[in-house]
Amino acid sequence: MIPPEAASSVHSPNHRREHRSRKAHSQGKSAAYLVLMLLLAALPALAKIDVDFDPNVDTAKYKTFAFVGGVRNLVMLPVDPDVLDIQIHRLVTRELTKKGLREVPPGQNPDLVVRYWATASQQVNPANMGDWGPYNAYIGSYWAPLYDAVSASSGKENTLLIDLIDARSKSLAWRLYLTRKFSNADKDWKKADEEFAKAFEGYPPSEKEKEAKRKERAAYSAKNSQP
Total structural domains in the chain? Predict the structure, then answer.
């Protein structure tokens, strides 16, 4: 039998108020968590950003760039191609101008040529399908490991590639991979705007990053030279 004083304590008004307060607090936390999850689900998914570059290139020599647009047959995104071209041109120009480079027309001997291409299927061999013009696809040799890794992990998402090419040597200097779903032009490009800014923070690469890339390439060369 519960002593009278204990029973009084269990059923006291203070005890009941405390119980209701704990229950309301718990329900409030659950509701707040649900709202947070709904908000996160409504946000556009963040892109996966990868960057590759030639560690032996002196980027300080690049003062000008020209935008030459997309690689024909390799702009496989479910958005208006004219809108895509305008948006990429705007974003690339904004970021390279921040770095001190100046845009010039393609016919005025630019230091860098900027192009883009995109794939929406792992079944496509871009080297065979693209109209590459005077430049290569740059998906073999040292460029292969990251290209293959990004292609394998992209799944059903689209991968947009931005190439900064040395106009004189026709060699790839720097490449950005942006893997995300492109479906809603307004929403996706608003997010891509932020992602471009974040990605170009890595241009030009630091000396530490260059040294790490040299070691990575040396390991690749040693591995592929073995019989």
Answer: 2
Residues 38 and 105 in one domain: no
Q: Which domain holds residue 18?
A: 4-42
Helix (H) or strand (E) holding 89: helix 81-98
Q: What is the pLDDT along the chain (227 residues), one digit of tens a residue?
A: 555 554 444 455 565 556 555 655 555 545 444 433 333 333 345 678 999 999 999 999 999 999 999 987 777 666 777 888 898 999 999 999 999 999 999 999 999 999 999 875 555 677 777 778 899 999 999 999 999 898 888 766 778 899 999 999 999 999 999 988 766 556 666 777 888 999 999 999 999 999 999 999 999 988 887 76
Yes or no: say if 139 and 153 are a contact pair by the CB < 8 Å rule.
no
Residues 66, 101, single domain; the answer is yes
pTM of the entire structure?
Answer: 0.76
* Strand stretches in 55-111, DSSP E: 64-75, 102-103
Distance CA 85, CA 70 (A): 7
DSSP percent split of the chain into helix, strand, coil, nearest 5: 50, 20, 30
Residues 6+ apart with CB under 8 A from 217: 55, 142
Q: Are residues 217 and 154 in the same domain?
A: yes
Quick one: 144 and 166 in the same domain? yes
